[in-house]
Amino acid sequence: MSALFGFSGAPAPHWLPAMSAALRHRADVPPELLQSPHGTIGIAGSDDPRASSGSMPMYRDADSALAVAGRVYAAGTRLEPDPKWLLAGFREHGMALWPTLRGQFLIALLDGPNLYLVRDGAGTRSVYYGRYQGRVCFACEPKGVLAVPGFPRRLRMGGLAQYLSFSFVPGESTMLEDLHELPAGHLLCVNADAGIRVQRYFHFEQVASEARRDEDTRSDADWLAEFDARFSAAVRRRIPQDGQALGVFLSGGIDSSAVSAELARQHARPLHTFSIHFGRGYPNELEFARAVADRIGSVHEEVLIEPRGFLPRLRRMIWHLDEPIGDPITMPNYELAMRIPEHIRHVFNGEGGDPVFGGPKNIPMLLQHWYGGLQRPVDFRERAYLASYRRGFEELEHLLTPEARAQICTQRDLVAPLTPFLQPDESTSFLDKLIAANIRLKGAHLILPKVERMLGAARLQPLSPFFDEDLLRLSFEMPGHLRLAHGIEKVVIKQAMRAHLPRAIVERPKSGMRVPVNYWFRGELARYARHILSRRELARAGLFDPARVGRLLRYETLEGPGRHGIRLWMLVTFELWRRIVLEREPV
Predict the structure, then answer these.
(1) Sheet of 2-8: strands edge to edge?
(2) What is the pLDDT of residue 562?
(3) Which of 186, 243, 489, 535 is 20 to 30 A removed from 298 (C-alpha atoms)?
(4) Architecture of the structural domain at 206-273+285-305+327-358+433-507
(5) Cα separation, 446 vs 384, whole angstroms
(6) How many helices and strands in the chain, by DSSP H and E?
(7) Domain 2-202 has CATH 3.30.300.30
(8) What is the domain partition of the chain in residue ranges?
């Protein structure tokens, strides 16, 4: 892993040690620094043998400096241009350079009085920034910015409403008023007066015109061959060229199984596959993961995850998350990362299959769009999208105190951010709109940050081929029936994998990794939850209604989808985050 941080404007030497120290878990060597009258960039790679080999050094000349965290490819090749090449390319092509880049990267460029930050097209890497004391501070994790002495830590109430509705905070705003996240496929320019301009440079949806699709005469077989070629290239680009051992998080679902099969075909050494389960009596997919492991000949390990094992590390996990993510799957990601053997540094996953190629959660939204009736409010799509997450959207009225509710506007904080994604137009199908929203919101602000932080905590490099930029484009080039058809999701992936995976893997419906929080909060986690969500602590914070939370803890509420466990997990996660970040409790 690597750590990237810095700020615009005049040098502030007292900021650098604090920012570097906050990111030391990513890189335990001193950072390489460039300081000029117009800005400072710091980048640290790690000499730990488990760290990613993808970090590239900084290049500087008389007027400029450029640093890259991650791996950059020139479009259509495996060429990994170095910072010197990138700086020369920027001088020759200007802003036209960025759309030609692929990979998993952050770029910081100091060019004369201007500072540029560039986030990769899918959002595999994250970068956060905030304006403070006439400068713009930035870092690859929020804690790098929050380490700046005196940087404000003010809860954004709209962010709390978004978190409770989605289990994460989507978009450029974060849980904090003064901290922002650069969206995927965007660049940020800071001028000499600390003025900020954010613009999008990677537009994967531009190929989605229905008229252009109607003119395309390619057959389904042609599209299948195109998927095969691009998927194979996406996996190949991510395989380290030094032949080292590779790991895969193998759930037994179609996506991680597809990645495992393609890796086994391309990589000469045996793969190491890892699956999780939660003990006897809880649903699992171990039989399917074993079938794939047997088929590809991997070294397979099954990891048991129980509350007594992860509870002592839960606060540390949330410290690594930085932004609260209330999806319980973050915990198995973290626990599994901590148990990867020392000789494995790169771990592949199947993340992205659902958001990119049409997972089953799109189906209720499509039905609502097509058959929801004529007498519908103008924002029915946005409200249906919020409800489709089945988190806490319907619970906001009951869960928050009157004082907290008064600071939240549903239209402003929850509906308006979704409108640009979901409003229909004649040139784009509603399925395309849903997939674009899922990639840009859930993919870039939940799935990819979750994986990057949880594996980064163990200095592992996560690799997510389905989020390859060329696959994003392909999803919007191909006909809709190759993504969702007759209630079958991810059609093109399933068709492509028929020759490579057991039939049971390809044909079974998606079940998902169900973390049994609904059972745990009745048993092993009940006492812990009552302690964290005590009436006294909730009253002191003034955000959640203690009586309502008490009924949730006793499983007495009836309103909403009734998912008590997921809501309790979200509340515990938020409360721990609040104490660590806002109240600065030690981890």
Answers:
(1) 32-36, 39-45, 2-8, 135-139, 128-132, 180-181
(2) 55
(3) 489
(4) 3-Layer(aba) Sandwich (3.40)
(5) 19
(6) 28, 19
(7) no
(8) 2-202, 206-273+285-305+327-358+433-507
